[in-house]
Amino acid sequence: MSRRNEQTTIAVGTPEIVIVGAGFAGLELAVELRTASIDDFVIVEKADTADDPRRTIDKHRLHQHLRLRAEVVTLDFDDADDRWTVGLADGKRLRPRVVLLAANGLTLQHEWRNDTAAFLGVATHGCPNMFSMLGQDSGGEHHSIAFLVKAQARYVRQCIELLRRTSSTRIEARAAVQHEFHRRLRLPGARISYRRAIRKPDPGHYDLTVAADREPAHEYSGPAMLDAPGSLLPVTVTLSGHADPIDGRYHWYGRISTDDGAALPDPGRAEVLLTLPGHHPTAGRLQERDPWGNVRIVGIGAPPFPLESVPAH
Question: What CATH number matches the domain at 17-212, 3.50.50.60, 3.40.50.12780, 2.40.50.140, 1.10.357.140?
């Protein structure tokens, strides 16, 4: 994810919700939203996508909604006001609050990666205000695709209602919740009962916040140099940290991205060095990638950024 694109936004409307894809899943989402009297959404579908014959009965219920025939090429989240910028192949931009991914085979600039299991197949920590249908690692009991689509569409609609009911501007799956879900999926013979788990969203599973009330999410954001085995790259980092009350040491962490699209090193056990302008190299380790190819970095001890009082060990 990145900050707001500074290029001029071409006005094509400002819907609160954008549904990417108008196949079976996309139309199920649209019908669920209409059922809840949520009307401020737009469906974006590729120009060569045919209407799904399974849902032709619902077309008359959607005729008043804008359906854009265009390909989505970029998705960027603006932390300042909790909105997405949806970039279309024709240069137009949409600025919704929520993005619902309901299309298969999206050819996005930042490809969805398979090393993150979406919570219940619909929500991913690190991707606020975004829900996906038929997540890449459902891992649940065997059900028909139609059952999963309908259950997920209903669940996503309830999440949006929860966002509105709490007057929040951001909804995001909690890291601990997604971690536990991922752990259970990896257990031998794991089965998730979607009939129970996806019946209704638990507010405790999500962080619901307002942009104006959040404290700054980082101690440093800006350029840096990453020295990893076999590569030396100029990067952009967003870093934070805290003193752990248990071990008494300072734990720092953050995300690394590149501005020119260069590939970042794969996460591994080897140490890397991160150097901020005017500071000494600091050792850290690379962890998982996010859906956009950015890499998480963590370290213990004095961080790369300056703090008044940080225990070194």
Answer: 3.50.50.60
DSSP 194: H
**DSSP character at residue 112:** P
Phi, psi of 254 (to 5 degrees): 170, -170
> DSSP alpha helices (H): ranges in 3-127?
24-35, 59-62
How distant is the alpha carbon of residue 218 from its chain centre? 18
Give the span between the Cα atoms of 264 and 164, in whole angstroms.
37
In angstroms, the Cα distances linking 49 to 88, 133, 221 are: 15, 18, 40
The mean of the pLDDT values for the chain is 78
**Is pTM beyond 0.85 here?**
no
Q: How far apart are CA 216 and CA 202, in angstroms?
A: 26
Using CB atoms within 10 A of its CB, is residue 248 exposed (0-12), middle (13-18) or buried (19+)? exposed
pLDDT at 111: 38
Contact 161, 213 (CB under 8 A): no
Q: Which of 96, 133, 119, 168 is nearest to 21 (CA)?
A: 133
Please give the Cα distance from 18 to 100 (Å, whole number): 6
Q: Name the H helices within 213-252.
A: none
Say which residue the tokens 């909690």 belong to. Answer: 174
Q: What tens digit of pLDDT does each residue of 231-242 get?
A: 899 999 999 888
Pairwise CA distance, residues 64 & 13, whole Å: 14
Residue 236, classed as helix, strand or coil, is strand
Going from N- to C-terminal start, the domains of the chain cover 17-212, 220-300
DSSP character for 8? P
Give the single-character DSSP code of 55.
Answer: G
- The answer to whether 250 touches 272, Cβ cutoff 8 Å, is no
